[in-house]
Amino acid sequence: MADYLKHEIRSxxxxxxxxxxxxxxxxxxxxxxDDVRVIATxxxxxxxxxxxxxxxxxxxxxxxxxxxGDLFQPFLKKEYFNLIIFNPPYLPLPxxxxxxxxxxxxxxxxxxxxxxxxxxxxxxxSYLKENGRILLIISTLSNIDFKRWEGTYSFERLSERAFFFxxxxxxxxxxxx
Length: 177
Known about the structure:
The chain is of the alpha/beta class. The chain is built from five helices and seven strands; from the N terminus they run αβαβαββααβββ.
């Protein structure tokens, strides 16, 4: 995804790195343009702490706002983003119980029927500016029907990489209404 960020980030963009994990995409975004605002979130509080540490190690911690939360839940008022970066959990496994704090499983399991990605697509439209963009990584294991979203988004396949049991696909999704 980092290779495509340099083509997508524009001057003065407000960028959301959703599910930041170690923070690599947020860190990369801040190094590509000096005048972007980057917000990075993750449901896993341990991941958020590690992302903050990584940002400090890369001397960009003052340029990234880190927030703990589930998808768009941390945003009490509508934030409007030019670009949302999302590398979601993509294995079609049942979602673990968050109360048990099984943070590792949350990093991989998307739920049966691509629950997280479907919820993300439903909610993200409200948080994107006009002509806002999404960079989304999906797996061929996800079995997502994107026809449902035609008219709301346009989809462009930027790249794919085959692994022994799946392909990972990077999509550029643009808000059309």
